[in-house]
C-alpha cells in the first residue's frame, strides 16, 4: 500500500528537484548533469578479497548524494530513470560486452524484508530495471536477474567500519535454488546504488561464484554502481 500511494502522489503533487530542491521539477538539468559523467573504475581501501572490478558513474557527494537519498529514503520514485541511466553507463564501462557472450544479467543487491517494508520499495532493484531498459534501448541485451537473497539476518551496516562490515556480511548471501541455472547463460553484472567499503559486492560475488553448476565454466563477473565515495575514485587514478 505504501509503495502504491507513493506512485500516485508522485504523479499528482508538485515536485522539487531531488538534488537541490528547485521547485516544479523532479530533477533539474544541473543535478542531472552530475549523474551524466564518464564512469570510472573505483576501488575501496582496504579492498575486500573477492571484490570484482567495479565501475561507478559518479562520486557520492553533493547533488548525487541528495538524489540517491531522495530515491532511497524519501520515496522519490521518479528519480529511478535518471539513476538507472547512470547505472547503465557504469555497466557499459565495465563489461566490454561483445556479441555472442549472451545477455548482460544485472543482479541487484538484495534488501532485507524489513528495509523494503520500511521504505515501501526496493531501491537497488528498481534502479536495476531502469538500467536494463536503458541498455536495451542502446542495443545491448540486458535483463534483471534478481537471484540473491539474505540467508541470515545481518546487523545494520551504518556506522560499521570496513572490517566490521565484512564480518557482518560473511556468508550472509546466497543464490536461490533456480539462480545457478539462470546465471549460466550470460555475463553477470552485480549492481547496487552505492559502493562504500565493497563488503556487500564482495559477498555477493562469493555467492554467485559458489552457485555455478557443477562442472560449469566460471561466471564472467563484474560490478557497477551509481555512486561511490570520492576516495574510491582517487585511489584508482593514483
What does this molecule look like?
The chain has 238 residues and is an alpha/beta fold. It has one domain. It contains ten helices and eight strands. It has helices at 2-12, 29-35, 62-73, 80-95, 113-119, 123-137, 162-169, 179-183, 199-211, 230-237; strands spanning 40-42, 54-59, 104-108, 142-144, 148-150, 173-175, 187-195, 221-228. Helix 9 links the parallel strand 7 and strand 8 (221-228). The longest helix is centred in the middle third of the chain and has 16 residues, at 80-95. It is globular. The N and C termini lie far apart (48 Å). The model is unreliable at 8-13 (pLDDT under 50).
How large is the count of helical segments? 10
Find the count of extended strands (DSSP E, 2+ residues).
8
Domains (count): 1
Helix content: 40-55%
Largest sheet: 6 strands, mixed
Give the integer mean of the pLDDT values: 84
Structural class: alpha/beta
Our measurement of the CA-to-CA distance between the termini, rounded to an integer number of angstroms, reads: 48 Å
Order of helices and strands: HHEEHHEHHEEHEHEHEH
What is the quaternary state of this protein?
single chain
- How much of the sequence lies in strands comes to 15-25%
Low-confidence stretches: 8-13
Strand order of the largest sheet: 1-2-8-7-3-4
Gyration radius from CA atoms, angstroms: 17 Å
So what's the overall shape? globular
Pfam family, one: Pribosyltran
Family: Belongs to the ComF/GntX family.
Protein name: ComF family protein
Organism: Streptomyces halstedii
Amino acid at each position: 500500500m505504501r509503495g502504491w500511494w507513493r506512485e500516485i502522489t508522485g504523479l499528482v503533487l508538485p515536485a522539487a528537484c531531488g538534488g537541490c530542491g528547485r521547485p516544479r521539477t523532479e530533477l533539474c538539468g544541473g543535478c542531472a548533469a552530475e549523474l551524466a559523467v564518464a564512469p570510472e573504475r573505483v576501488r575501496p581501501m582496504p579492498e575486500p578479497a573477492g571484490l570484482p572490478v567495479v565501475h561507478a558513474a559518479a562520486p557520492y557527494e553533493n547533488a548525487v548524494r541528495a538524489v540517491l537519498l531522495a530515491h532511497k529514503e524519501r520515496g522519490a520514485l521518479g528519480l529511478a530513470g535518471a539513476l538507472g541511466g547512470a547505472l547503465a553507463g557504469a555497466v557499459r564501462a565495465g563489461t566490454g560486452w561483445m556479441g555472442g557472450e549472451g545477455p548482460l544479467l544485472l543482479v541487484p543487491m538484495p534488501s532485507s524484508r524489513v528495509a523494503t517494508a520500511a521504505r515501501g520499495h526496493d531501491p537497488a532493484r528498481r534502479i536495476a530495471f531502469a538500467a536494463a531498459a536503458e541498455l536495451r534501448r542502446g542495443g545491448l541485451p540486458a535483463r534483471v536477474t534478481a537471484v540473491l537473497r539474505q540467508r541470515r539476518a545481518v546487523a545494520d551496516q551504518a556506522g560499521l567500519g570496513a572490517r566490521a562490515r565484512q564480518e557482518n556480511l560473511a556468508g550472509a548471501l546466497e543464490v536461490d535454488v533456480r539462480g545457478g541455472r539462470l546465471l549460466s547463460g550470460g555475463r553477470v553484472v552485480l549492481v547496487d546504488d552505492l559502493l562504500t567499503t565493497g563488503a556487500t559486492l564482495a559477498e555477493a560475488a562469493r555467492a554467485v561464484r559458489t552457485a555455478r553448476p557443477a562442472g560449469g565454466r566460471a561466471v564472467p563477473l563484474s560490478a557497477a554502481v551509481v555512486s561511490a565515495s570520492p576516495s574510491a575514485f582517487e585511489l584508482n587514478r593514483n
